[in-house]
Amino acid sequence: MSVFDRTGLASLSDLQSGECKSLFENLSNQQSSILDNIQLADSRFSRHNVLQQWSRCWEYPYVFHHLLKHLDICGKKREPVVLDFGCGATFFPFAVAGTGAAVIGSDVDLTYRDEFELAEKNIKTPKGMVKYILSNPNTIALEDSSVDLIYCISVFEHIPIMMMEVIIDELHRVLKPGGRLILTFDLSKNDEYRLSKCDYLFIRNLLTNRFHFEERETVTHPGDLLHTLNSPYPLRSFLGYRKYLFSGKQHLKKLFGKKPMPILNLFVYGAVLRKEISSV
């Protein structure tokens, strides 16, 4: 059984597994190859090494593992359609397209459309294809039941909580019955940052009402949890001298009667959900 065949919080043990290391190396090679082929001085792609970020070193292998598993199933009949919801500008949709999928990158940022158009001219995927669609904050510009798989990497923590139900309903609408939604998002140790405990419970309830959690829920020992400070690529803002600068600023806030901010301590959560075949 794969270390990624589960729902729950990311662990340091996951990163140390041979499977994760192999996937990370595979994706690192693809990222280097894809970015080398872009050759765009002003492109966000050319300077965006997403793998070497505190949570992405786990999120991308986790998501890629589940994409490969389910693409292998639906790809036997036709070219699978995959939605990268909140895509940004990264190598990842091109890596997914290399498996033979038709990947649709969706975001609310108009500048990403230009980035994708430039990238498509420079990146030749061996099998599939990549295209970008601009969506508004409340609607995904796709037909009902039009995609086989959706992945959403660290997007939910940037969505206003009052819009969450609308977004989850949209993801459910465009996904085909029997299709999978692969999610990762950050969880905060305290309520000063997104997503808080209340946010998580609210989102979990919305997801449960619309989807079926496919993978078993696992418990990770607190000492094994991956977070912003113990990652192989920790947040630099809270390391070395930056940590003392941050602490000094918070102390000054307190002296002047303002509320100090705690150190950003985030965990990352992953889940695979299925839209029931009878779901409407």
Entry keywords:
globular, about 280 residues, alpha/beta, eight-stranded mixed β-sheet
Rounded average pLDDT:
86
Counting H and I runs of at least 4 residues, what is the number of helices? 8
Q: Could you name the ranges where pLDDT drops below 50 across 5 or more consecutive residues?
A: none
Rg: 19 Å
What pattern of helices and strands is seen along the backbone? EHHHEHEHEEHEHEHE
**How much strand content do the residues show?**
15-25%
**Any idea what the shape is?**
globular
Distance between the termini: 32 Å
Q: Report the structural category.
A: alpha/beta
Profile the largest sheet: 8 strands, mixed
A few lines on this structure:
The chain is α/β, with parallel strands linked by helices and 280 residues long. The chain contains eight helices and eight strands, in the order E-H-H-H-E-H-E-H-E-E-H-E-H-E-H-E. The longest helix has 21 residues, at 18-38.
Give a written overview of the molecule.
With 280 residues, the chain is an alpha/beta fold. Helix content is 37%, strand content 18%. The chain contains 8 helices and 8 strands, in the order βαααβαβαββαβαβαβ. Strands 1, 2, 3, 4, 5, 6, 7 and 8 form an 8-stranded mixed β-sheet that branches. The longest helix is centred in the N-terminal third of the chain and has 21 residues, at 18-38.
